[in-house]
Amino acid sequence: MSNETLRRAGVIGGGSIGVAFAVVFARAGWRVRLHDPDAARREAVPAEIVERLETLARFGLLDAAVRQVAECVEVVDTLEGAVADADLVQECAPERVEIKRELFERLSRAAPAHAILASASSFLAASKFVDETLSARDRCLVAHPGNPPYLIPVVEIVPAPCTSAASTARAADLFRDAGMKPVLVSKETEGFVFNRLQGAVLREAYCLVRDGVASVDDIDTVMREGLGPRWSVVGPFETVDLNTRGGIAAHAQKMGPSYARMGAERGQHDPWTPELVARVETERRRALPLERWNERVAWRDRELTKLVRHRKQSEDADH
Predict the structure, then answer these.
(1) What is the dihedral of CA 293, 294, 298, 300, to 10 degrees?
(2) Last residue of some domain: 120, 149, 184?
(3) Total tally of structural domains belonging to the chain
(4) Is the pLDDT of residue 4 over 80?
(5) Domain harbouring 241, CATH code
(6) In contact, 20 and 99? CB cutoff 8 Å
(7) Transmembrane segments in this chain: where (predicted)?
(8) N or C end of the chain: smaller count of CB under 10 Å?
C-alpha cells in the first residue's frame, strides 16, 4: 500500500473484538492505534495479536510475516492518541448505552473531521447512544462484525437517521478496503440482521429442546452437519431457490403453507404474501435467471463437494 493510500484506524477497546479488529486492519496493511482504559489490558494486547497472527500464518491466511503485520499495531495510553489521525474509529466497548454515549461524545471531539466513527454494537442502534447535538453525528454508525472478524468477514453497516449517505458509503468502502464484506442494514432494528437470523434459529432450538423434540446435541448436529455446511455455500433464499425446480416462487407455493403452520405453532403470524414473494423472486431472478438454474445447482454441488473433501481431509489429519 502506498503512502498516498495508507489507511489509519483507531480501535477503542482491547477486548476480544477490539483485538480482532486490530488484526483485520493490520493484516490489510493499515496503521492501527488501539486504546483500552485498563492498563493490564493494554499490556496483554500485543501478545494476543501475535498469537492470532501466528494462527493465521500457520493456515496460510497471512500474506506478510507475523512480525511485519504486528508492527502495524501500536497500543496507546489515551483515547485521544488512538484516534488523532484515524480514517476510521472502531469502538469496541461493552454493550451499555451510557458507556457508548460518553465514548462517542469524546470521539466526536477528538477524531479528525473526516473520520468515520463506528461502533461494534451487537444489538444497540447508534441512535440510542449518538446525541443529535454531536458535531460528528453525520459520521456515526454501527459496524457490527461476525466474531472473529478476521475469519468471518461480514460486517453490518447500520446508519442512524442522522448518518449521512456519504458517510455510510465511505464506511462500506473502508471496510471493503480492509478485506471485509460490508452489508447495508437499511433501517435501525434491534439485533440488525446477523443476530436476528441467529436469534430466530436459537429461539426455535430452545423450543425444540423444551418440547422434547430433540436433544441439544442432536440439534447442534443438524446445524453442524446439515444447515451449516449448506448455508456456508448458499444462504437461505438461494438454498430454497435451488432446491425447487421453478425457483423460489415455486418453493413458496409448495412449502409456504407448511412454514406458516410451523410459525403459527409459535404464535407467529408473518405470512409470505404474494407481494412479498414477488419481491424476493424479483431479486433472485435478477441474481440468477431461471435459464441458468441447472448451472447454479451444479455449482452448488461442486462447492459442497469441496467443503466435504476439506472436512474429511481435516478429520483424517487429526487421527
Answers:
(1) 20
(2) 184
(3) 2
(4) no
(5) 1.10.1040.10
(6) no
(7) 6-26
(8) C
